[in-house]
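User: My instructor asked us to take a sequence, write out its structure as tokens, and then describe one feature of it. I'm not sure where to start. Here is the sequence I was given:
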Amino acid sequence: MNASLKTAMVALATAGALAGAGLTQTAAPAAADTRYNLPSETQRHTMGDGTVVSFQRVRERATVNPSMGGTPLHRNAWVSGKLVVNLSKEASRIEIYPGYIVGCQVNLGGVTGEGGGGIDETGALDGAEIGTSVTLGPGQARAFYLVDAERADDFGQEKHDSRITYKKKKRATLSYTNSQLGLRGCAGYAQARSFASVQVETKHAMQTMSFYGRPFSLG
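Assistant: Let's start with the prediction itself. The structure tokens for your sequence are:
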């Protein structure tokens, strides 16, 4: 099963009222976008029952530009990439929680680790939220998910899910294209870093692992 996520943002500007009043509106010079092509990575982890989990992050890229707010406190990035999970044997269930960590005046290169650190029993990263925009001050960082899938729970109520699930598979792939990251309130340097929490359930074991990408600057 392949999953593909696509998001887009459309910005509208109006100047008719100014023209009608005899006023003119001058567009500010556009700041150049900064583009990153991040290196592909392969990471491996062996579960307790001997199942080998190979995680690949490929074609990850980001385009960073100032937002239409026009101040250093506003930055936007559009990110794309592909995640591939390969197992040495078939699993009854594979779940992928893709997301990004955004930090204001924080070195995200210190975020490392494979295994269960910071992961709760559902496979979710502790403190992560569903959404694409965060407000941060100096020294703060926040993780959030790219997936916002709506479905009904056991009581018929709407539920938002941050994972994609694959059943009875040895391989799972997930692609996302032009997902938006928005940062507000950070006057200093800022970074972002991709992560994926992967939960694998086999006949004899269940384990959640977290894999991290290469940090990149948001300006």
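For the description part of your assignment, you could build on this observation: The CA atoms of residues 112 and 212 lie 7 Å apart. Try explaining in your own words what that tells you about the chain.
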